[in-house]
Every structure is written in structure tokens, then in C-alpha cells.
């Protein structure tokens, strides 16, 4: 099996964001906004001698084994890597910054920044067909078999943790935890959507050959050619269609502008592209 080192590097970045958001913002304020990290925060508040990172590692063992068996070895392997990366990073942060206190006295500020940082990190991980471990594995299983979005699946999976947070930390912090879970699930869905947004472009130009060469050779994307007849003068014209990233579209538009300022371009936003050169079938 070929190892995609780029994918693992991206997962590592997502893991770092989750670790930072959890340790510096959620944990010090006892905001258990769902997930294994939330459960670890609850247990740590009851038994302070038990490190959050070690608790997360222990609880993840059972769930990532389930992930390997139910979803597959690729997902399982990436999830193992991600979950232990997060736990290890939090253990390291606990050594570097022991007895961390809330950065702000405003719990809502702590919640917002914690959820923003963790949510972006989790979305990056999910977009690589992995999870951060724990209840996110349950969410991935729900997503696979019930076709519910990842964000909503996380919301379903984290209800138990938020209820436990209400019992352990009081109704106020429990409500903050529920707010955090809702915000987190919404953020994850939107970040994943933005990461998978592409432009579907149709081009009619007198410089068609140059544009095709630019798309294939410079942008390293394929294109489809078909012919259409104009309603005004009945002339048959070549239409070039391609699907490219937002950054590639800006480059393509600038290139076309320089060689044919009268070219006709239509653009549609595509929320998901599956196939060679894009996302894999999962």
C-alpha cells in the first residue's frame, strides 16, 4: 500500500490545532465541548492526578479498533496516527505549560476560540478520510452508514458528553458545552465544504488551442471539448470545460485576459468532485 506522506502531514497540522484549542482554551475553563477531549476534561476535573493526554490515549484504544474493523484499515491507520498525535501533543503541552489557566476571564471567549481552533483542525483531519479518534469515530460510522453530514454526526455522538458536563460542572458550563458542540458541528461542515469547493469553467475563445495547452500543461488539469451552435449567427464554436481550484481559476482567468480579452467564460461553483485528480471514492 502506497503511503501518502502529504496526507499524514496535513493530518498532523489538524492534530496540532485540535491540541492547542483543547489545552489552551477548552480545558482550563472546564468546557467539555464533546468528544474524547471533553470526556477527558470531565474525568480530569474529578481526578486531577490523571493527565488529560493520558486519559485520551486510554479511551481511544477501544474506539479506533472499532474504526479499523468497521470503516477500514486506511481510515483506521490515519485515525490512530491522528489520535496519538493529539494526545502526545497535549502531554507535551502539559509539560511545557503546566497548571495552565484560562487566557481570558470570559468563558464565552474561551469557548469561541477553542471551538474555532479545534473545529478547523477537525475539519482538516476529516477531509483526509481520518478522524481525531474517540467519538469522532462514532460520527464517521454514522456518516458512512446513514449518510448524515460529518458535523451533524458529531453532534449526535457528543450528546452524552455534554449531558455529563452539565452534571459535573453545573448547568451553566453544561449549556456552554452544548453551545460549543453545536458551533463545532456547524463549523466542521462549512470548513469541509470550503476545502472541497472547485470552479467548473466553460470557455469560448478564439485562442482555444493556447487555453487548452495552458490548462493541461501549466495547471495540470484535464479538459473536455464539445461544440455548440450560437443562436444569434448559427456559428459553431468550440467550448472548453474544466474543473479547477479557486486559485487555479484566478490564474486561468488572468491568462485568458492577456491572450483574448473578448473570450466568453461561464463559471459554476462545485461543492464536491470525486475521481482521478480529486477526492477518492470513500
Automatic annotation (TrEMBL):
Q: Does the keyword Ribonucleoprotein apply?
A: no
All residue ranges annotated as the DUF2179 domain in the record = 221-275
Which InterPro entries does its entry note? DUF2179, UPF0750_membrane, YitT
**What keywords tag this UniProt record?**
Cell membrane, Membrane, Transmembrane, Transmembrane helix
**Where would you find this protein in the cell?**
Cell membrane
Q: Does the keyword RNA-binding apply?
A: no
Major location category of this protein: membrane
Annotated membrane-spanning segments are 7-25, 61-87, 107-127, 148-169
What is the protein's membrane topology class? Multi-pass membrane protein
Its Gene Ontology cellular component terms are: plasma membrane
> How is this protein named in the record?
YitT family protein
Q: What is the lineage of its organism?
A: Bacteria, Bacillati, Bacillota, Clostridia, Eubacteriales
Amino acid at each position: 500500500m502506497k503511503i501518502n506522506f502529504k496526507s499524514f502531514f496535513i493530518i498532523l497540522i489538524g492534530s496540532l490545532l485540535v491540541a492547542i484549542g483543547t489545552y489552551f482554551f477548552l480545558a482550563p475553563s472546564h468546557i467539555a465541548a464533546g468528544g474524547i477531549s471533553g470526556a477527558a476534561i470531565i474525568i480530569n476535573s474529578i481526578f486531577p492526578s490523571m493527565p488529560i493526554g493520558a486519559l485520551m490515549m486510554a479511551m481511544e484504544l477501544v474506539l479506533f479498533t472499532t474504526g479499523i474493523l468497521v470503516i477500514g484499515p486506511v481510515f483506521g491507520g490515519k485515525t490512530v496516527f491522528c489520535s496519538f498525535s493529539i494526545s502526545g501533543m497535549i502531554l507535551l503541552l502539559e509539560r511545557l505549560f503546566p497548571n495552565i489557566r484560562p487566557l481570558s476571564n470570559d468563558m464565552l471567549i474561551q469557548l469561541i476560540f477553542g471551538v474555532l481552533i479545534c473545529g478547523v483542525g477537525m475539519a482538516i483531519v476529516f477531509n483526509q478520510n481520518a478522524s481525531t479518534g474517540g467519538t469522532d469515530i462514532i460520527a464517521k460510522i454514522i456518516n458512512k452508514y446513514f449518510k448524515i453530514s460529518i458535523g451533524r454526526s458529531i453532534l449526535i455522538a457528543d450528546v452524552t458528553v455534554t449531558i455529563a458536563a452539565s452534571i459535573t460542572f453545573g448547568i451553566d458550563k453544561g449549556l456552554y458545552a452544548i453551545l460549543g458542540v453545536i458551533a463545532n458541528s456547524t463549523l466542521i461542515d462549512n470548513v469541509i465544504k470550503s476545502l472541497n469547493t472547485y470552479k467548473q469553467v466553460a470557455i469560448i475563445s478564439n485562442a482555444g488551442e493556447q487555453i487548452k495547452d495552458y490548462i493541461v500543461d501549466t495547471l495540470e488539469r484535464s479538459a473536455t471539448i464539445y461544440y455548440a451552435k450560437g443562436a444569434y449567427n448559427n456559428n459553431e464554436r468550440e467550448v472548453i470545460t474544466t474543473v479547477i481550484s479557486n486559485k487555479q481559476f484566478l490564474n486561468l482567468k488572468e491568462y485568458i485576459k492577456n491572450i483574448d480579452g473578448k473570450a466568453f467564460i461561464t463559471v459554476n461553483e462545485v461543492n464536491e468532485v470525486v475521481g482521478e485528480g480529486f477526492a477518492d471514492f470513500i
